[in-house]
Amino acid sequence: MLPTTTRVISRKMRLIDIGVNLTDGMFRGEYRGKRAHADDFGSVMERARKAGVERMIITGGSLSESIEALSLAESDPHLYTTVGCHPTRCGEFDNDEQGPDHYYDQLRDLIKSHSLAKKIVAIGECGLDYDRTHFCPIDVQKKYFLRQFDLAEETGLPMFLHSRNTGNDFNDMIKANRTKFKHGVVHSFTGTVQEMQDLVSMDLHIGINGCSMKTEENVEVVKAIPANRLVLETDAPWCDIRPTHASYQYWKNCSSDLKELYTPEGKKKEKFEMGLMVKSRNEPCTMGQVLHIVAAIRGVDANELAEQVWENTCNVFFP
């Protein structure tokens, strides 16, 4: 039976968004290179802090993006970042004018030159993506996924991992290189219960966001993740939770107070109003929505889940 309401908590939950793409132009009012509205990055950050999101880890998807993310993280005590190369962009290694070793060295040097600042908390986003091989062929993805295991081993950082429709290839590469890194999160997980269990058996954590809860099968996976292996994220500006998703039934009857805090009023970008959310552009403030839905799916108290997820997240990224 679904809960009809969610109790408003007496204290604000502590939340950490482990995956948010704050370097995306959408947060500056640009969509596919065209300006649609004013830069409202400050409002996005204000809503996140109001919603109890105490830390956010910006996803680095390439060398240039990692540099930009690090600069942003250094400007705000709430922000941290990953450094790495997304599987769909691994062609950048080969396209480097001085060769792939130079690209690798720049990633490594970026990490080592900022180690004292503790702003870089993981290697990634890296892995395999067979849904988008038109961006980067499989052999190139595999080659430079392997290099990023070396980067994790060399720096001692955990791994922020990506897998889409890879058959056994992703798991096989993890198994073969598992001794090279201590902790890892397979983020935005959309696989089966068996795939999740295989990853957990390798001592990995599972990252859940709106895209992880679209279908009833996804919901069953969320129920089955061991409590000490669960971490949460938004993957904003993507992966918002929509009324068509299987998970939405766990949110639609939540209290108006929770909805106002975690999914405040928004308007379409064409009718942008400063201080309001932009519809269909996900934000880190929705972390509380993800948390409450996951708690309802699992039939547990939201406060207790928040503390468990906080502990799990700190064990991986903030030891």
Automatic annotation (TrEMBL):
The keyword Nuclease applies. One of its GO terms (cellular component) is cytosol. Signal peptide: none annotated. A divalent metal cation 1 binds at residues 125, 235. The keyword Signal does not apply. Transmembrane segments: none annotated. It holds the Pfam family TatD_DNase. Coiled coil: none annotated. A divalent metal cation 2 binds at residues 162, 187. This is Uncharacterized protein. InterPro entries: DNase_TatD-rel_CS, Metal_Hydrolase, TatD-like, TatD-type_Hydrolase. It comes from Umbelopsis ramanniana AG. PANTHER family: DEOXYRIBONUCLEASE TATDN1, TATD FAMILY DEOXYRIBONUCLEASE. Belongs to the metallo-dependent hydrolases superfamily. TatD-type hydrolase family. Keywords: Hydrolase, Metal-binding, Nuclease.
